[in-house]
Amino acid sequence: MKEKLPRLPIATRLRNDFLAGLIICAPVAITLWLTWSVVRWADSWVKPYLPARYDPDNYLNFAVPGSGLLIALVAITLIGFLGKNLIGQSIVQFSESLVRRVPLVRSIYQSVKQIFETVLKDKTNSFKKVGLIEYPSPGLWALVFISTDAKGEIATKFKAMGQDMVCVFLPPTPVPTAGFLIFTPREKIVPLDMSPEDAAKLLISGGLVTPEELAGRMKKQERTRKPLPAPIEM
């Protein structure tokens, strides 16, 4: 006969049920809260500058959440479409020429534009690869996002020393939005197969959430791997 497992105390069972419910509800609640915050933030920026006749709230007895975000998406898409035409390019170039005449604004605009062009271009590999480097001391490894090769004066200085340097971004845990810009030799980087999304999950969770797809792929490879033949006895 099978031995009956001892019944857990009521307090322990309630605690386990509460933790199970928290694991189910917390991700949903946080996702909804973040989505609602983004929608309200977009509405607060767009609606004050929207003419009254184009604001759907003036024709309804209730506010329409997300209308400002939708209008912003349509406007940005329309501006991008017009910016590809000859007339649109002429307007953009004229506007940029005016911005470049203002000393402080010129530096900020050029820096921000270069960042967006580098990150949003389809052909770039910036922040699409993940690796490991020894940081902050030998024997300790940190997760980094590989940005690009060293360029300009920095690349020239390092090449004169015979070093091929790569620019990487070292984010902290658990908020990977800020971090350190590090130049490291290419041969010092250990490339990883995980995606930037999986790396972000690993950082935000403090190492608790491991890349599931990569782990599943490795287990599958281990299952399909053929065993080595037994040595032939002489």
UniProtKB/TrEMBL annotation:
Protease recorded as keyword: no
One Pfam family named in its UniProt record:
DUF502
Transmembrane feature ranges: 20-39, 59-82
Provide this UniProt record's keywords sorted from A to Z: Membrane, Transmembrane, Transmembrane helix
Q: Which InterPro entries match?
A: COV1-like
Keyword field contains Transmembrane helix: yes
Q: Where is the composition biased (Basic and acidic residues)?
A: 215-225
Give the domain of life. Answer: Bacteria
Q: Where is this region: Disordered?
A: 215-234
Q: What is this protein called?
A: DUF502 domain-containing protein
Source organism of this protein record: Rhizobium altiplani
